[in-house]
Amino acid sequence: MLRVMKTTISAPGSLKRLTTAIGGAILALFLAAFGALVNPAAAHADPSVLEYSADNENWGGLEQIPAITGQLIPNGELTSTFYARNQTEQGGELQVYLGNWSKTSPDMQVYVRVEINDASGELVDLTDNSAQPGTELNAIRVEPGETAKVTLVVGMPAEAGNESQNESVNPAFALDFEVDDTTPGGGNGSVDSLFGSLGNIFGS
Fold first, then answer.
1. By the 8 A CB rule, do 83 and 53 touch?
2. φ, ψ dihedrals at 40, nearest 5°
3. What is the dihedral of CA 107, 109, 113, 119, to 10 degrees?
4. Which of 102, 113, 186, 201 has the most CB atoms less than 10 A away?
5. CB 186: neighbour CB atoms within 10 A?
């Protein structure tokens, strides 16, 4: 199932101001492809193994993850914050990866990072197109019934200049929840892979 939420925001034509067109698409169709990318041997189950909420009160599926909105400027960041709750009877590790992102120019200066429970993972630079899909951005252990706060961040460094104008980036993130295996001597199994695309960010 493909769910698309789209917002277009325009900005004045300042040289270093960016106009943002956001498509907050949740691409469940990419489940199998990304599962194979991260862990080919893992078994992936129904995405409903995790619940999601934008406010930590109203819970549901992937449609609860908010789209990124706003204007991206040098030394600025756009974010999407949501909560992921482990409703299984087993503990596990919630992992956030870089997805199949794309960019119209290798010179466009942009980065991504992920905060979990307000602790930031490493910043991953997308400027030279060398960042690989499947790069882990952050992870945390989540016990049964526990909730993790996740913030997906797309930013532009302060030194970004004219090379970032009139270009676009399609950042993508993927969630994976790897539960503990209860079989003696068994390995871990990834039961949930969710693919989120946060649309296009355009330079003006």
1. yes
2. -60, -30
3. 150
4. 201
5. 9
Tokens of 113: 């990072």
In angstroms, the CA 22 to CA 39 distance is 30
Task: Give strand pairing partners of 92.
Answer: 142, 179
Is the pTM value of this prediction over 0.70? Answer: yes
Rounded to whole angstroms, the Cα distance separating 66 from 203 reads: 22
119 burial (CB, 10 Å; 0-12 / 13-18 / 19+) is: exposed
Instruction: Give me the amino acid identity at 6.
Output: K
Helix (H) or strand (E) holding 38: helix 31-38
